[in-house]
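Hi team,

As requested, here is the filled-out complex form for the glutaryl-coenzyme A run. I kept the field names the same as last time so the parser does not choke. Let me know if anything looks off before we queue the next batch.

— J.
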Amino acid sequence: MAEKELGGCHENSGLIDKNKILEANEALKSEQDEVSQSRNSQYQQDLKSVLLTSVLNLEKLDVDLYRGTHHWVPRTQRLFGGQIVGQALVAAAKSVSDSLYAHSLHCYFVRAGDPKVPVLYQVDRTRDGRSFTVRSVKAIQHGQPILICQASFQTLQPSPLQHQFPMPVVPPPEDLLTVEELIHHYLSKPDLAEEAKKGLKKLLANEVPIEIKPVNPAHFYRLGPEQPRRLFWGRARGHIGEGNMKLHCCVAAYVSDFALLGTVLLPYPEYRAKFAASLDHSMWFHSTFRSDEWMLYECESPWAGSSRGLVQGRMWRRDGMLAASCSQEGVLRVKPVTEPSKL
Ligand SMILES: CC(C)(COP(=O)(O)OP(=O)(O)OC[C@H]1O[C@@H](n2cnc3c(N)ncnc32)[C@H](O)[C@@H]1OP(=O)(O)O)[C@@H](O)C(=O)NCCC(=O)NCCSC(=O)CCCC(=O)O
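And here is what came back:
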Protein backbone atom coordinates (compact mmCIF):
# COMPACT_ATOMS: atom_id res chain seq x y z
CA MET A 1 0.00 0.00 0.00
CA ALA A 2 1.30 3.46 -0.91
CA GLU A 3 2.30 5.69 1.99
CA LYS A 4 -0.18 8.52 2.56
CA GLU A 5 1.41 11.94 3.06
CA LEU A 6 0.16 14.44 5.61
CA GLY A 7 0.41 17.86 4.01
CA GLY A 8 0.49 21.28 5.61
CA CYS A 9 2.96 22.66 8.06
CA HIS A 10 6.07 20.90 6.81
CA GLU A 11 5.77 21.54 3.12
CA ASN A 12 8.33 24.04 1.77
CA SER A 13 8.05 26.64 4.49
CA GLY A 14 9.82 29.27 2.35
CA LEU A 15 12.98 28.99 4.45
CA ILE A 16 14.92 27.42 1.63
CA ASP A 17 15.31 29.23 -1.66
CA LYS A 18 16.41 26.34 -3.84
CA ASN A 19 17.81 28.53 -6.65
CA LYS A 20 19.88 30.70 -4.32
CA ILE A 21 21.35 27.67 -2.63
CA LEU A 22 22.14 26.06 -5.97
CA GLU A 23 23.82 29.27 -7.23
CA ALA A 24 25.93 29.69 -4.10
CA ASN A 25 26.94 26.07 -4.14
CA GLU A 26 27.77 26.17 -7.84
CA ALA A 27 30.23 29.04 -7.21
CA LEU A 28 31.86 27.21 -4.31
CA LYS A 29 31.91 23.96 -6.25
CA SER A 30 34.01 25.26 -9.12
CA GLU A 31 36.62 26.56 -6.62
CA GLN A 32 36.69 23.25 -4.87
CA ASP A 33 36.59 20.81 -7.77
CA GLU A 34 40.10 19.51 -7.25
CA VAL A 35 39.69 18.90 -3.53
CA SER A 36 36.34 17.32 -4.20
CA GLN A 37 37.67 14.92 -6.83
CA SER A 38 40.44 13.63 -4.62
CA ARG A 39 38.01 13.21 -1.72
CA ASN A 40 35.50 11.36 -3.89
CA SER A 41 38.08 8.90 -5.07
CA GLN A 42 39.15 8.42 -1.45
CA TYR A 43 35.56 7.61 -0.44
CA GLN A 44 35.00 5.33 -3.42
CA GLN A 45 37.81 3.00 -2.40
CA ASP A 46 36.70 3.24 1.20
CA LEU A 47 37.11 1.06 3.82
CA LYS A 48 34.73 -0.26 6.35
CA SER A 49 33.13 2.43 8.46
CA VAL A 50 35.03 3.08 11.67
CA LEU A 51 31.60 3.10 13.33
CA LEU A 52 31.34 -0.58 12.43
CA THR A 53 34.88 -1.65 13.24
CA SER A 54 35.50 0.42 16.36
CA VAL A 55 32.91 2.81 17.84
CA LEU A 56 29.92 0.44 17.79
CA ASN A 57 31.98 -2.73 18.10
CA LEU A 58 31.57 -3.28 21.85
CA GLU A 59 33.74 -5.70 23.77
CA LYS A 60 31.78 -8.33 25.72
CA LEU A 61 32.98 -8.57 29.34
CA ASP A 62 30.23 -10.80 30.76
CA VAL A 63 26.55 -11.61 30.19
CA ASP A 64 24.83 -8.27 29.40
CA LEU A 65 27.98 -6.30 30.23
CA TYR A 66 29.99 -4.53 27.50
CA ARG A 67 32.82 -2.06 27.15
CA GLY A 68 32.93 0.72 24.56
CA THR A 69 35.80 2.95 23.49
CA HIS A 70 35.87 6.33 21.75
CA HIS A 71 36.83 7.49 18.30
CA TRP A 72 35.93 11.17 18.10
CA VAL A 73 35.67 13.52 21.09
CA PRO A 74 34.12 16.98 20.52
CA ARG A 75 35.93 20.19 21.43
CA THR A 76 33.96 20.31 24.70
CA GLN A 77 36.12 17.37 25.89
CA ARG A 78 33.03 15.57 27.17
CA LEU A 79 32.00 12.40 25.34
CA PHE A 80 29.79 12.87 22.29
CA GLY A 81 26.20 12.10 23.31
CA GLY A 82 25.49 10.31 20.01
CA GLN A 83 28.31 7.89 20.70
CA ILE A 84 26.96 6.98 24.14
CA VAL A 85 23.40 6.57 22.80
CA GLY A 86 24.61 4.50 19.80
CA GLN A 87 26.71 2.25 22.04
CA ALA A 88 23.86 1.84 24.55
CA LEU A 89 21.59 0.72 21.71
CA VAL A 90 24.24 -1.76 20.50
CA ALA A 91 24.41 -3.23 24.02
CA ALA A 92 20.60 -3.47 24.26
CA ALA A 93 20.32 -5.03 20.79
CA LYS A 94 22.78 -7.79 21.69
CA SER A 95 20.26 -9.24 24.16
CA VAL A 96 17.27 -9.50 21.78
CA SER A 97 16.53 -11.99 19.02
CA ASP A 98 17.38 -11.34 15.37
CA SER A 99 13.66 -11.22 14.51
CA LEU A 100 13.18 -8.03 16.55
CA TYR A 101 13.73 -4.49 15.26
CA ALA A 102 14.59 -1.40 17.32
CA HIS A 103 11.63 1.01 17.20
CA SER A 104 12.39 3.55 19.95
CA LEU A 105 14.73 4.66 22.70
CA HIS A 106 14.60 7.22 25.50
CA CYS A 107 17.74 8.42 27.29
CA TYR A 108 18.90 10.87 29.97
CA PHE A 109 22.49 12.13 29.99
CA VAL A 110 23.07 12.38 33.73
CA ARG A 111 26.82 13.06 33.89
CA ALA A 112 29.47 14.25 31.46
CA GLY A 113 31.34 11.35 29.84
CA ASP A 114 35.08 11.20 30.51
CA PRO A 115 37.05 10.72 27.25
CA LYS A 116 40.07 9.32 29.15
CA VAL A 117 38.41 6.03 30.13
CA PRO A 118 36.14 3.50 28.36
CA VAL A 119 32.40 3.26 29.09
CA LEU A 120 30.75 0.16 30.57
CA TYR A 121 27.25 -0.78 29.41
CA GLN A 122 25.08 -2.84 31.76
CA VAL A 123 21.89 -4.24 30.24
CA ASP A 124 18.78 -5.13 32.23
CA ARG A 125 16.31 -7.43 30.39
CA THR A 126 13.25 -5.50 31.56
CA ARG A 127 10.58 -7.46 29.64
CA ASP A 128 10.25 -9.90 26.76
CA GLY A 129 6.68 -9.59 25.41
CA ARG A 130 4.95 -11.25 22.47
CA SER A 131 5.40 -8.25 20.14
CA PHE A 132 7.47 -5.80 22.16
CA THR A 133 10.67 -6.30 24.17
CA VAL A 134 12.13 -3.65 26.46
CA ARG A 135 15.71 -3.23 27.68
CA SER A 136 17.20 -0.77 30.16
CA VAL A 137 20.84 0.14 29.75
CA LYS A 138 23.09 1.98 32.17
CA ALA A 139 26.30 3.52 30.80
CA ILE A 140 28.85 3.69 33.61
CA GLN A 141 32.18 5.44 34.19
CA HIS A 142 34.09 5.70 37.47
CA GLY A 143 31.36 3.54 39.07
CA GLN A 144 28.58 6.04 38.30
CA PRO A 145 25.92 6.24 35.57
CA ILE A 146 26.57 8.79 32.80
CA LEU A 147 23.51 7.75 30.76
CA ILE A 148 20.33 5.83 31.41
CA CYS A 149 18.52 4.45 28.39
CA GLN A 150 15.39 2.47 27.69
CA ALA A 151 15.15 0.84 24.28
CA SER A 152 12.21 -1.04 22.82
CA PHE A 153 12.18 -3.65 20.04
CA GLN A 154 9.29 -5.12 18.05
CA THR A 155 8.60 -8.01 15.72
CA LEU A 156 7.76 -6.92 12.16
CA GLN A 157 4.00 -6.41 11.95
CA PRO A 158 1.80 -5.30 9.04
CA SER A 159 -0.46 -2.27 9.46
CA PRO A 160 -3.26 -0.73 7.38
CA LEU A 161 -2.41 2.59 9.09
CA GLN A 162 0.48 4.18 7.24
CA HIS A 163 1.18 7.86 6.77
CA GLN A 164 4.04 10.35 6.99
CA PHE A 165 4.78 14.04 6.38
CA PRO A 166 6.27 14.84 2.95
CA MET A 167 10.05 15.17 2.76
CA PRO A 168 11.31 18.78 2.36
CA VAL A 169 12.38 19.72 -1.18
CA VAL A 170 16.15 20.38 -1.19
CA PRO A 171 19.06 19.99 -3.64
CA PRO A 172 20.47 16.45 -3.82
CA PRO A 173 23.77 15.70 -2.03
CA GLU A 174 25.64 15.57 -5.38
CA ASP A 175 24.98 19.33 -5.81
CA LEU A 176 26.32 20.26 -2.38
CA LEU A 177 29.72 20.54 -0.70
CA THR A 178 30.98 18.60 2.28
CA VAL A 179 31.81 20.37 5.52
CA GLU A 180 35.54 19.91 4.75
CA GLU A 181 35.18 21.49 1.28
CA LEU A 182 33.30 24.44 2.79
CA ILE A 183 35.98 24.93 5.43
CA HIS A 184 38.71 24.96 2.73
CA HIS A 185 36.67 27.63 0.96
CA TYR A 186 36.33 29.79 4.10
CA LEU A 187 40.05 29.36 4.89
CA SER A 188 40.91 30.78 1.46
CA LYS A 189 39.22 34.10 2.32
CA PRO A 190 41.93 36.79 2.83
CA ASP A 191 39.99 38.82 5.46
CA LEU A 192 39.34 35.84 7.72
CA ALA A 193 40.10 36.66 11.37
CA GLU A 194 43.01 34.71 12.92
CA GLU A 195 40.70 33.35 15.64
CA ALA A 196 38.21 32.00 13.07
CA LYS A 197 41.08 30.48 11.06
CA LYS A 198 42.32 28.61 14.11
CA GLY A 199 38.83 27.33 14.89
CA LEU A 200 38.28 26.13 11.32
CA LYS A 201 41.65 24.34 11.21
CA LYS A 202 40.74 22.53 14.43
CA LEU A 203 37.42 21.49 12.89
CA LEU A 204 39.27 20.20 9.81
CA ALA A 205 41.61 18.10 11.96
CA ASN A 206 38.61 16.37 13.60
CA GLU A 207 38.13 12.81 12.47
CA VAL A 208 34.34 12.78 12.63
CA PRO A 209 33.19 9.38 11.35
CA ILE A 210 30.25 10.89 9.49
CA GLU A 211 30.17 12.83 6.25
CA ILE A 212 28.02 15.99 6.24
CA LYS A 213 26.75 18.19 3.39
CA PRO A 214 24.87 21.25 4.70
CA VAL A 215 21.92 22.23 2.51
CA ASN A 216 22.47 25.88 3.36
CA PRO A 217 26.00 26.60 4.65
CA ALA A 218 24.92 30.01 6.03
CA HIS A 219 22.45 28.23 8.36
CA PHE A 220 25.01 25.62 9.27
CA TYR A 221 27.64 28.16 10.30
CA ARG A 222 25.25 30.69 11.86
CA LEU A 223 26.20 33.58 9.58
CA GLY A 224 23.08 35.61 10.35
CA PRO A 225 19.82 35.44 12.28
CA GLU A 226 17.89 32.46 10.94
CA GLN A 227 14.78 30.51 11.75
CA PRO A 228 15.70 27.72 14.20
CA ARG A 229 15.71 25.12 11.45
CA ARG A 230 18.49 23.55 9.37
CA LEU A 231 18.97 20.67 7.01
CA PHE A 232 21.94 18.60 5.99
CA TRP A 233 22.66 15.37 4.18
CA GLY A 234 24.61 12.91 6.29
CA ARG A 235 25.93 9.37 6.11
CA ALA A 236 28.46 7.18 7.91
CA ARG A 237 31.92 7.42 6.36
CA GLY A 238 33.00 4.16 4.81
CA HIS A 239 31.07 1.00 4.06
CA ILE A 240 28.56 -0.71 6.36
CA GLY A 241 26.52 -2.68 3.86
CA GLU A 242 23.03 -4.09 3.69
CA GLY A 243 21.51 -6.40 6.25
CA ASN A 244 21.88 -5.70 9.93
CA MET A 245 19.07 -3.17 10.45
CA LYS A 246 19.74 -2.94 14.19
CA LEU A 247 23.28 -1.75 13.42
CA HIS A 248 21.97 0.89 10.99
CA CYS A 249 19.69 2.14 13.80
CA CYS A 250 22.72 2.36 16.14
CA VAL A 251 24.61 4.40 13.52
CA ALA A 252 21.56 6.64 13.01
CA ALA A 253 21.40 7.15 16.79
CA TYR A 254 25.07 8.22 16.64
CA VAL A 255 24.43 10.63 13.75
CA SER A 256 21.18 11.98 15.24
CA ASP A 257 23.00 13.90 18.01
CA PHE A 258 25.31 15.64 15.55
CA ALA A 259 24.63 19.38 15.16
CA LEU A 260 21.11 18.91 16.55
CA LEU A 261 21.30 21.11 19.67
CA GLY A 262 23.05 23.94 17.75
CA THR A 263 19.73 24.52 15.91
CA VAL A 264 18.50 26.36 19.03
CA LEU A 265 21.18 29.05 18.54
CA LEU A 266 20.32 29.91 14.92
CA PRO A 267 18.08 32.93 15.72
CA TYR A 268 20.77 34.39 18.03
CA PRO A 269 24.00 35.20 16.12
CA GLU A 270 24.73 37.79 18.85
CA TYR A 271 25.30 34.98 21.36
CA ARG A 272 27.60 32.01 21.50
CA ALA A 273 27.31 28.99 23.78
CA LYS A 274 29.57 29.03 26.81
CA PHE A 275 27.97 25.82 28.07
CA ALA A 276 25.90 23.43 25.96
CA ALA A 277 25.03 19.81 26.67
CA SER A 278 22.18 17.54 25.77
CA LEU A 279 20.01 16.54 28.73
CA ASP A 280 17.93 13.83 27.08
CA HIS A 281 17.48 12.16 23.71
CA SER A 282 14.60 10.14 22.30
CA MET A 283 14.41 8.42 18.98
CA TRP A 284 11.86 6.50 16.93
CA PHE A 285 12.70 4.31 13.94
CA HIS A 286 10.07 4.12 11.18
CA SER A 287 11.35 2.35 8.08
CA THR A 288 14.37 0.38 6.96
CA PHE A 289 17.35 2.46 5.76
CA ARG A 290 21.09 2.37 5.10
CA SER A 291 23.06 4.65 7.41
CA ASP A 292 26.03 4.54 4.98
CA GLU A 293 23.83 6.08 2.27
CA TRP A 294 22.84 9.76 2.16
CA MET A 295 19.93 10.68 4.39
CA LEU A 296 18.49 14.16 4.80
CA TYR A 297 18.53 15.32 8.41
CA GLU A 298 15.96 18.02 9.15
CA CYS A 299 16.47 19.70 12.53
CA GLU A 300 14.18 22.31 14.10
CA SER A 301 13.73 23.91 17.48
CA PRO A 302 10.14 24.78 18.39
CA TRP A 303 11.01 26.29 21.78
CA ALA A 304 13.79 27.72 23.98
CA GLY A 305 13.61 29.16 27.50
CA SER A 306 14.91 28.75 31.05
CA SER A 307 18.46 28.01 29.75
CA ARG A 308 17.07 25.05 27.80
CA GLY A 309 16.18 24.40 24.18
CA LEU A 310 14.00 21.72 22.62
CA VAL A 311 15.04 20.27 19.26
CA GLN A 312 13.31 17.81 16.97
CA GLY A 313 14.87 15.95 14.07
CA ARG A 314 13.64 13.93 11.15
CA MET A 315 15.85 11.66 9.04
CA TRP A 316 14.69 11.10 5.49
CA ARG A 317 15.78 8.46 3.02
CA ARG A 318 16.54 10.10 -0.28
CA ASP A 319 13.51 8.39 -1.86
CA GLY A 320 11.28 10.42 0.50
CA MET A 321 10.57 7.77 3.15
CA LEU A 322 10.73 8.98 6.74
CA ALA A 323 13.41 6.76 8.32
CA ALA A 324 13.59 8.07 11.90
CA SER A 325 12.54 10.93 14.18
CA CYS A 326 14.16 12.23 17.32
CA SER A 327 13.70 14.79 20.09
CA GLN A 328 16.20 16.27 22.46
CA GLU A 329 16.32 18.88 25.18
CA GLY A 330 19.61 20.54 26.00
CA VAL A 331 20.95 23.06 28.47
CA LEU A 332 22.39 26.15 26.74
CA ARG A 333 24.10 28.95 28.63
CA VAL A 334 25.27 31.74 26.34
CA LYS A 335 27.47 34.83 26.32
CA PRO A 336 27.44 37.78 23.89
CA VAL A 337 29.67 37.50 20.83
CA THR A 338 32.27 40.27 20.86
CA GLU A 339 33.29 40.06 17.17
CA PRO A 340 30.89 39.17 14.35
CA SER A 341 31.83 36.12 12.25
CA LYS A 342 33.76 36.94 9.07
CA LEU A 343 33.23 33.64 7.33
C1 LIG B 1 23.50 18.62 32.25
C2 LIG B 1 24.39 18.61 33.48
C3 LIG B 1 25.55 19.57 33.31
C4 LIG B 1 23.54 19.08 34.66
O1 LIG B 1 24.32 19.00 35.85
P1 LIG B 1 24.24 20.15 36.95
O2 LIG B 1 25.07 19.73 38.08
O3 LIG B 1 22.82 20.42 37.26
O4 LIG B 1 24.96 21.34 36.18
P2 LIG B 1 24.61 22.91 36.05
O5 LIG B 1 24.24 23.49 37.38
O6 LIG B 1 23.64 23.12 34.96
O7 LIG B 1 26.03 23.49 35.63
C5 LIG B 1 26.54 23.26 34.36
C6 LIG B 1 27.42 24.47 33.99
O8 LIG B 1 26.64 25.62 33.93
C7 LIG B 1 27.13 26.59 34.88
N1 LIG B 1 25.97 27.24 35.50
C8 LIG B 1 25.06 26.71 36.32
N2 LIG B 1 24.12 27.63 36.63
C9 LIG B 1 24.46 28.76 35.98
C10 LIG B 1 23.90 30.06 35.90
N3 LIG B 1 22.78 30.41 36.55
N4 LIG B 1 24.51 30.97 35.13
C11 LIG B 1 25.62 30.68 34.46
N5 LIG B 1 26.22 29.45 34.50
C12 LIG B 1 25.64 28.52 35.26
C13 LIG B 1 27.92 25.78 35.90
O9 LIG B 1 28.90 26.56 36.49
C14 LIG B 1 28.53 24.72 35.01
O10 LIG B 1 29.61 25.24 34.22
P3 LIG B 1 31.07 24.64 34.34
O11 LIG B 1 30.94 23.17 34.04
O12 LIG B 1 31.47 24.89 35.75
O13 LIG B 1 31.88 25.41 33.31
C15 LIG B 1 24.91 17.16 33.81
O14 LIG B 1 23.83 16.34 34.09
C16 LIG B 1 25.69 16.62 32.66
O15 LIG B 1 26.83 17.01 32.42
N6 LIG B 1 25.07 15.68 31.93
C17 LIG B 1 25.68 15.11 30.75
C18 LIG B 1 25.41 15.95 29.53
C19 LIG B 1 26.14 15.40 28.34
O16 LIG B 1 27.32 15.10 28.45
N7 LIG B 1 25.43 15.23 27.21
C20 LIG B 1 26.00 14.61 26.07
C21 LIG B 1 27.07 15.39 25.44
S1 LIG B 1 26.49 16.89 24.75
C22 LIG B 1 26.48 16.50 23.08
O17 LIG B 1 26.84 15.46 22.70
C23 LIG B 1 26.03 17.51 22.14
C24 LIG B 1 26.97 17.53 20.96
C25 LIG B 1 26.54 18.62 20.08
C26 LIG B 1 27.35 18.66 18.79
O18 LIG B 1 28.59 18.52 18.83
O19 LIG B 1 26.74 18.93 17.78
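Two things worth flagging: The longest strand covers residues 271-285. The first helix runs from residue 18 to 44.

Thanks,
J.
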